[in-house]
Specification:
Number of strands: 26
Radius of gyration: 23 Å
Number of helices: 15
Oligomer: single chain
CATH class of one domain: Alpha Beta
Strand content: 25-35%
InterPro entries: ATP-dep_Glu-Cys_Ligase-2 (IPR051680), CP_ATPgrasp_2 (IPR025841), UCP005522 (IPR016450)
Largest sheet: 6 strands, mixed
Protein name: Circularly permuted ATP-grasp type 2 domain-containing protein
Organism: Chroococcidiopsis thermalis (strain PCC 7203)
Helix content: 25-40%
């Protein structure tokens, strides 16, 4: 396979400027691929799939109440970002996370942004992620969003936009690390010849972030990863990160509140736990504070957390910032809290709870993407240009019945990356999810998870909707 016949099309291509002109940072990779003997690239692609399968890189898809474990699809043609461009993205992500953290801390405490009429109080109070039991919380260091996965997209003009913020339990970083491991063995000579920024330091940065949460003056804090269990869609990641950090992977039944502390059951008795990387949603983490029917959480955890005897990442209540209606106000938050202009722009967004904007959305459903405020994974979404009239009418009724619950955005011409489909290169649409850690400082892991729409012509990159992933290389010339 060669790139001689590859056609970038009328999209921003991450590796090519035009059909015969590759981007400068991609030239060493493309030359290496073009030099391979016939059939060699396909053999390497297949070997990469087998390697990931042997490593158990899986996720669960839920259908009709049953979980099906699948290998996460992977394409060996990477996305390449120049170091100069990455520097700008990194700066923008740090600015955004800093402002979002100030926002979350504000709305659970002084609520100045509401009093100053920057964001309507009814939007906060009606957000499903706004948790009244969290009012007055003071997490360690005033940090709420310790681990964030921010979804970015690039439009036809090459400009980056923030698609959404993921601040509850963002997943996917394990695929970043495992993809890189496979790529190093797939293209060892390319890695020797190019300066590609490493991603392998993420687990050590994550552990440092979690240790920073533990109550002060502890000589040897105990950190755990709290998982809902083996049937969770991201269980591979939970176990992988625990193993990489060298900490215990626990379920709710392994923990108990005793003597005013969170403690872990061990063969030698109870052991105090000081910091928890939770992969359980807020509503299920403490049946005494939230859902009383939850069997996943730990009764009494909220009381221990309020008392400052255990750290949680992310802090409870951060899900309010995942609300897609609240997302529309992030540029205003940056201006309000930081007095700065946003470095990264939002995708233009229509708020269906506002009558004039709702009327525009209803009149243009065939041109817009409609999203439910609190859905993820490609669910609760209408891509108007590819929907049937019946589907558009169904969403119109949903919007009119619950306008607070919907936003709409223009259909972006997402950038593409050459991808192996049926033994040929085709441009497939991609997004990018960098991972940001907020401990003593804000750290952005170089690159992130490039998700790719593996269904020909599709704009949906989510793994649950047929998407896969690529390695992301941040390279210096």
């Amino acid at each position: 396979m060669r790139f001689d016949n590859y056609e970038p099309g009328d999209f921003y291509d991450e590796l090519f400027v035009t059909k015969d002109k590759p981007r400068a940072e991609a030239i060493p990779l493309l030359e290496r691929i073009n030099s391979l003997p016939a059939g060699e690239l396909q053999r390497r692609h297949q070997a990469a799939q087998i390697a990931l399968m042997n490593m158990g890189v899986t996720f669960n898809v839920y259908s009709e109440g049953e979980g099906t474990e699948r290998i996460f699809p992977f394409d060996i043609i990477p996305r390449i970002v120049s170091a100069e461009e990455w520097q700008s993205l990194e700066k923008g992500l740090k600015q955004r996370i800093f402002a979002l953290n100030l926002f979350i801390n504000d709305i659970y405490n002084e609520q100045k942004i509401i009093r100053d009429s920057v964001i309507p109080s009814e939007l906060i109070e009606s957000a499903t992620g706004f948790l009244k039991p969290c009012i007055g919380l003071k997490p360690p260091g005033g940090i709420w969003c310790h681990i964030t996965g921010t979804d970015l997209v690039r439009d036809r003009d090459g400009r980056w936009y923030v698609l959404e913020d993921n601040m509850r339990c963002p997943s996917g970083v394990s695929y970043v690390l495992e993809n890189r491991r496979v790529m190093k063995s797939t293209f060892p000579k390319v890695f020797e010849s190019m300066t590609i920024q490493p991603v392998e330091e993420y687990p050590s940065h994550l552990l440092e972030t979690l240790l920073n949460l533990a109550p002060p003056q502890l000589y040897d804090p105990t950190v755990v990863v709290l998982t809902p269990g083996i049937y969770n869609s991201a269980y591979f990641e939970h176990s992988f990160l625990a193993q990489q950090m060298g900490v215990e992977l626990v379920e709710g039944r392994d923990l108990v509140v005793a003597d005013g502390y969170l403690q872990m059951r061990t063969t030698k008795g109870l052991k105090r736990v000081d910091a928890v990387y939770r992969r359980i949603d807020d509503d299920f983490i403490d049946p005494l504070a939230f859902r009383p029917d939850s069997l996943l959480g730990i009764p009494g955890l909220m009381e221990v957390y309020r008392a400052g005897r255990v750290g949680l990442a992310n802090a409870l209540g951060t899900g309010v910032a995942d609300d897609k209606v609240i997302y529309a106000y992030v540029p205003a938050m940056i201006r309000y809290y930081l007095g700065e202009e946003p470095i990264l722009s939002n995708v233009p967004t229509y708020l269906c709870w506002e009558p004039n904007q709702q009327a525009h959305v209803l009149a243009n459903l065939d041109k817009l993407v409609v999203k439910a405020a609190n859905e993820s994974g490609g669910y609760g979404m209408l891509i108007g240009s590819s929907a049937t009239p019946e589907q558009r009418q169904e969403f119109a009724e949903k919007i009119k019945a619950s306008p607070r619950n919907y936003i709409a955005q223009p259909t972006l011409c997402l950038s593409r990356v050459p991808t192996i489909l049926e033994d040929q290169f085709e441009g497939c649409h991609v997004d990018l999810r960098p991972y940001i850690l907020y401990g003593k400082e804000i750290y952005v892991n170089p690159g992130g998870l490039t998700r790719v729409a593996l269904r020909r012509g599709s704009l949906v990159v989510n793994s649950s909707q047929g998407g896969g992933s690529k390695d992301t290389w941040v390279v210096c010339k």
